[in-house]
Amino acid sequence: MILAKIGRFSLRPSPIVSSGSAKWFASGHNYVTVEPDSEMDNVAIVKMQKKPFNVLCTDMLQQLTTTFQELPKEKKYKAAILTSNIPGVFSAGLDIMSVYGRTSDEIYSFAMDIQNAWIALYGNPMITVAGINGTSPAAGCLLALSCDHRIMAEGKFGIGFNETKVVSMSAVVAMGGIWMKNTMQNVIGFRKTEKALQEGTLFTPSQAKEIGLVDVVAPMDQIIPSCRDFIKQYLKLPYGPRSMTKQMLRQDTIKQLKSAMKEDAEASALYLSDPAFQKVLGSYVAAMSEGKA
């Protein structure tokens, strides 16, 4: 799940418009903000805001983890909308510089941060909706898939795991390919996942809806209202039984990772710190800096 190449899809950063922030972060950077929805006070709006493309660095992953661990403890909130404060991009995936030139220990810690963020979101008892207001490749797609429901904006945006077209599929496997694969497979099925991962496909919003990768495609200004519509329907269900059922359905996928978290992180660190892979990654970083990747 290395930082993905965007290709033909739009990635247009816009100014951050909200100053709300979560109260749980020790870091000096508020890459994640939390605020109550303006129309539904039992809904938290979680916004990613790391300019320019919401790449997932260590601080941002840890803030996402803390956010989704703490929100269920806030009794007022029953649901959360995960979206971006940078219209045009949901998240461009993992920060490649968190892997390139890093020691094995640093990469190990980064791999653990990825796993913890996924567990906090995928296993969250609340109603979670991804308001995908822009392009969402690689780990950005993983965040969206980890929610209960996905609403994507119309436009020249892409979503999917396109790592095979960026560095190598072995990098995907090294960064936890099995549980990542299972997260997608649980949403769209084995055959579609098999094709999507091997071909490294970034789907347009309409294509993503057709295969079930997203549930709704809406105009940009209707993303949050559409998220509210889904939440209103789910709030009609008994909260406890619904939450328990969700966790029961997802527990096998979570247990598979939890049973081997350290081993997976160690394998990631061993592979990604290898000089041969770092050389390949260095060529990609150089191409990125020259605008060729």
TrEMBL record:
<comment type="function">
    <text>Key enzyme of fatty acid beta-oxidation. Able to isomerize both 3-cis (3Z) and 3-trans (3E) double bonds into the 2-trans (2E) form in a range of enoyl-CoA species, with a preference for (3Z)-enoyl-CoAs over (3E)-enoyl-CoAs. The catalytic efficiency of this enzyme is not affected by the fatty acyl chain length.</text>
</comment>
<dbReference type="Pfam" id="PF00378">
    <property type="entry name" value="ECH_1"/>
</dbReference>
<dbReference type="GO" id="GO:0006635">
    <property type="term" value="P:fatty acid beta-oxidation"/>
</dbReference>
<comment type="pathway">
    <text>Lipid metabolism; fatty acid beta-oxidation.</text>
</comment>
<protein>
    <recommendedName>
        <fullName>Enoyl-CoA delta isomerase 1, mitochondrial</fullName>
    </recommendedName>
</protein>
<comment type="subunit">
    <text>Homotrimer.</text>
</comment>
<dbReference type="GO" id="GO:0004165">
    <property type="term" value="F:delta(3)-delta(2)-enoyl-CoA isomerase activity"/>
</dbReference>
<keyword id="KW-0276">Fatty acid metabolism</keyword>
<keyword id="KW-0496">Mitochondrion</keyword>
<keyword id="KW-0809">Transit peptide</keyword>
<keyword id="KW-0413">Isomerase</keyword>
<keyword id="KW-0443">Lipid metabolism</keyword>
<dbReference type="GO" id="GO:0005759">
    <property type="term" value="C:mitochondrial matrix"/>
</dbReference>
<keyword id="KW-0007">Acetylation</keyword>
<dbReference type="InterPro" id="IPR001753">
    <property type="entry name" value="Enoyl-CoA_hydra/iso"/>
</dbReference>
<dbReference type="InterPro" id="IPR029045">
    <property type="entry name" value="ClpP/crotonase-like_dom_sf"/>
</dbReference>
